[in-house]
Amino acid sequence: MNSSRLCCAIWTLFTVLLTGCLYGQTEECKTSMYPPKGPTFKGSVQWYTVNLDEPPVTRWDGVIKDKKNELVAMIQAIKVLANSLVPSGKLIDLVDNGLPLMLGSMPYPFNEEIQGISTASGVPLGEVILFNIFYEVFTVCTSVVAEDTHGNLYHGRNLDFGLLMGWNHKNHSWALTDKLKPLAVNIDFKRNNVTVFKSTNFAGYVGILTGVRPKLFTLTMNERFNFDGGYVGILEWILGNRDGMWMGFLTRSVLENATSYEDAKKQLTHTKLLAPAYFILGGNQTGQGCVITRTRVNALDVWEIELKLGRWYVLETNYDHWEKPFILDDRRTPAMRCMNKTTQNNISFKTLYDVLSTKPVLNKLTTYTTLMEVSTGKLETFLRECPDPCSPW
């Protein structure tokens, strides 16, 4: 990187940090935000069906047909960012020529689905693989599972993505966050014309970050920052050590195959991973809600709803719940303050959406908010905006 690009990067970082200091203050807990409306609501997310009885190479064709232009625009934004870091274009050449060699080592059916998405969209295979790898290392979020006084369980999440990936000085927004929002889709995965599970996805990404298996469990995944992180796991995979599971592939496999909350918890706790993570899992019976704190090898902690201790919800951002969050990224404290103010008597889709609409829980990285209810299998997703003043993360 030459000196002018280095200066530009430093200035961008300084601007973002300054914005965070100016706009990072918490606000009063929001109320009456649901049904979604106003300047923080960018639109609802369209539903699609993915038929698991179809061959993997064609099962995403319907989604990609509708979202091809948006996927191409997202990939182009990634290229611009990559070329700003490595101006020679060699990084993209490596992606286009090197990453396709990984496809054969990826597990079925995900490898064939990725190939099919590349064919249907015309996006080079390596770039589709890169799009799928991103979520192993760049997802910052807020997830919460809560139980009301009648034993009903609700699961909500803000999906935040795009940190340090191109700050738009004019719009005060993250470039990749803006490009991701049009790619958000709700998917009804069916087999034999019966729903197996539902999810909120980004078109072109075959893993799962947010999903519900109706009447059994709900599941979200948050990134866990750690030196032994996703970069290390991906590098090991490339070098031939492939005993770890891709996070997004594991969550999708669990949603498709686990037969109960306890079965899902066991798989999420014990499966070796490429990257550390937090799995936030909700069940269908009283007390079934937990945050599983994972290293790449094992679980450090399983933090569960415990009504006898007054813990009627569990809430996770991107820091171990027994440690204080990073001082410049404390979404946990305002989120818990609003949950406590809501009280167990009043928790619902409506009030959970209010919590997730309160700054800085809602921030410039927030692409969508999803609400799930396990007993009905209900999943609702809304695209979000965070008008200034708003924290960049």
Describe this structure in words.
The chain has 11 helices and 16 strands. The protein is α+β, with helices and mostly antiparallel strands. A hairpin with a 4-residue loop joins strand 15 and strand 16 (378-384). Helix 3 (90-98) crosses helix 5. The protein is globular, with a radius of gyration of 20 Å. The two termini are 26 Å apart.
Task: Please provide a brief summary of the model.
Helices cover 33% and strands 24% of the residues.
Write the layout of secondary structure elements.
Layout: H1 3-23, E1 41-44, E2 47-51, H2 61-85, H3 90-98, H4 110-121, H5 125-133, E3 139-147, E4 153-161, E5 167-168, E6 173-174, H6 175-180, E7 184-191, E8 194-202, E9 210-213, E10 217-223, H7 230-238, H8 247-257, H9 261-270, E11 277-282, E12 289-294, E13 299-304, E14 313-316, H10 332-342, H11 349-356, E15 366-373, E16 378-384
Parallel strand pairs: 2-7
Antiparallel strand pairs: 1-16, 3-4, 3-14, 4-15, 5-6, 7-8, 8-9, 9-10, 10-11, 11-12, 12-13, 15-16
